[in-house]
Amino acid sequence: MSIAKSLLAEFETQAPITRKFLERLPEDKLTWKPHEKSMSAGQLAYHLAFVPGGVIRFVKNNPAQAPEFANFPQPASRQEILKTLEESIAAVRDLLSKFDDASMKETWRMVAGGREVLAQPRAEFLRDVMFSHWYQHRGQFCVYLRLLNVAVPASWGPSADEPPLFAQKSQSAVAAF
After folding, report:
1. Any alpha helices (H) in the chain, and if so which ranges?
2. Whose CA, among 83, 95, 138, 158, lies 20 to 30 Å from 21?
3. What is the pLDDT of residues 12-39, one digit of tens each?
4. DSSP one-letter code for 73
5. What is the pLDDT of residue 13?
6. 49: three-class secondary structure by DSSP
7. Quick check: helix, strand or coil at residue 18?
């Protein structure tokens, strides 16, 4: 299996899980913050929705100009967040499959102010930022949901509110008989 297909397979598993998290954000809590230094719940949800598509579009260019990280958009609705996630999913499906193994192993560079600030294989950057960074923020969002007293979805394993996904699937199969 190619590097891109392997990453895409992981993405296809994780995108629906992330959607479950985002769907649970109460519409009236978009501007809520657990601390004054924190992003609002809506900003963090929007960031979760945007990251995969934003990252895959970003790595097309080599070198790529370092992005500004100062402002995270404040969405007006949960629907805006979910629409952003759908656009992000479509971008990953479209663009990731176009990278062959040679381009995934190619040294990808990020520059800021005309200076190189990062150089690593494109696949490694995707693993670090499109996935690990995404998962880290999903964990952060899990805490937001808990603090808002919203049922937290299961992800790899169970949450305090749901059994692990494999158990949910086996319960569904048993119920079908």
Report:
1. 3-23, 41-58, 78-96, 101-105, 122-125, 133-147, 165-176
2. 95
3. 999 999 999 999 999 999 999 999 999 9
4. -
5. 95
6. helix
7. helix
